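Session log. Operator J.P. requested a structure for one protein chain; no other inputs attached. Running the standard single-chain path with token output.
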Amino acid sequence: MGRTLGAGMTTAIAASEGYADVWLLVLVSSGGTTRLTTAQQDVSWGGNTYSAVGGALELQAPAETSDYSAQGLQMTLSGVTQTIISDLLTNNMRGQNCTLYFGQVLLTTGVVATDPIQCFTGYLNEQWEVREDPARGTSAGTVTITTAAVSDIARYLFPRACRTNVTSHNDMLDRGGLTVGDTFFSRVPELVGKVVTWGRRTAVPKSSGGATTGGGGIDNFDKQSDSDDFF
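Structure written below.
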């Protein structure tokens, strides 16, 4: 997609020194919002602090293609601090928002230049995979965690069904911007094996002493009015 550099980014890129490239990653989860940066120290932008991961943060360059559904983002963090690992693995992030910005950081202050470029926005699509390489001899052990995100448009390519349970039903209501909390499907187990009558009731012949009275024609049946139906 087309992107326009703001005044702050234009000045930073044009400068011969004093600035450095920086990536800003925003991950939304059930525990709140995690903000990470590739900078060597924490940086500030938009009133928020982006935490240096304490190791390497590798981001696959977002694909520039007219097929928005094919856009994705691979993320790999290695040697990260235990605090960040705990945050990423403890909270529910799958299906939550993910946004990536590219900007310039002023080396003397650690402040990000205004108007970073939004390079990717989408949804986390996979669980975090953790790979641990234990220490051997004099080499220190490392921990690497990876995940991937898909573009916004990808969510519309596949049907999102509503299953007959309370959680799925309320997820559907939430996606539609409706009030959640409906417990209708909590009654489904009570209906298993239950006989449900549908349609108009059939006339039953009258009996006398255990035998059906004959010769009476229709008069020997309980007559049902049109209103005596099951619906």
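Operator note: The two ends are 55 Å apart (CA to CA).
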